[in-house]
Amino acid sequence: MLDSVLEKNRSYLQNTDPEVFNALVGEEKRQRFGIELIPSENFAFPEVLALLGSAFTNKYSEGYPGKRYYGGQDYTDIIEDLARERAKKIFRGEHANVQPLSGSAMNQAIYHAYLDPGDTVLGMELSHGGHLTHGAPVSHMGKIYNFLRYKTIINKGGIIDWDEVEDLTLRYKPKILLCGHSSYPKDLDYTKFKSIADKVGALTMADVSHIGGWIATNHLNNPLDAGFDFMTTTTHKSMRGPRGGLILSKKEHAKKIDSSIFPGLQGGPHMNQVAATALTMKKVATSEFNNYALMVLKNAKKLAEELLAEGFDLITGGTENHLIVIDTVKSLGLDGKKAEELLDEYGITTNKQVIPDDPNPPLRPSGIRLGTPAVTTRGMEEEDMKIIAKWISKILKEKENLKSLTGLKNDIKNFSDKFVLPGI
To answer: What is the pTM of this model?
Structure first.
């Protein structure tokens, strides 16, 4: 019955707006016939796609379960309670808020709840692996609050400069000590962050948006186990859920966090997203997902090994999680924008990426970032990583002689078509 409903809806779309329908079909084909290596992208569970297009899309649910501003909340309360309880159990958190519409919103909600304009936050330098929402000068948060930044030590394998973290903490006494990353290929020592924060009474916050799935399955360290006040994560990247945010916190912070999300920052939550989050939390708790999460990490390590064997220079020398950053300038004299475009031409999708203390601008940086969540979702394993690494090497090394790669586009297309594309 569900298949017939979906087919009817696609037929309605095709008849109503063929331009949008054709773009949808084109995107489906791009995903099916390509190799998706952007580490922050994944393929949602089919059940997630069904819920995102469900009747929950139609319902307004301002407030929280049992305390809504609209009637007709019997089933929305059920799904939000399920999502919150499942998230708390998986991550060992005391409180969960599943309403943030995005990763940016979840982080902003914590800043607004606990900081006054001009207050200090210590976070990771963007070029060393941090994130825009951690106070980059171009962000609104970077203009409202005083963000200071710590770095990694490049010549020591990219370890965090703990002396700098402690020095900045003791000198400036930040209200929040923030850790987490978007392009840092290592696990984090949350206990060390917590011990430094405690010296000045700073709140501790970890944004684990890129690695939430591996924390949920205990393959990477959990900041909540180290006593962190807050942990935030998106639900789509590593967990194959809907595009949205999730806040876990100590119980003592529950009231402030909830009121900061609603009514402080957002109006009505997207209940189709909340329903999909509830489903995602159930899926993440299964042994099947645990096996998947472990395979992602194995694939990332194998891909890194093969790229190193091909002569590429990798930031931190490899990976301890799902992502890899290649210094393409040092490896090939090729900026990241050009490397991204060359690979894209052959159906291998990556993204240009700044590297530590990058001398190049963000839109033409010195590296590219790639990862293994999406290809692992499609069923690719370590032997396939060897093939992909060789193709990346061929394309980038033959940048001046691409005519020698006749037939490679078809090889990549046929290779990718052998693997299932979930939900499409």
So the answer is: 0.95
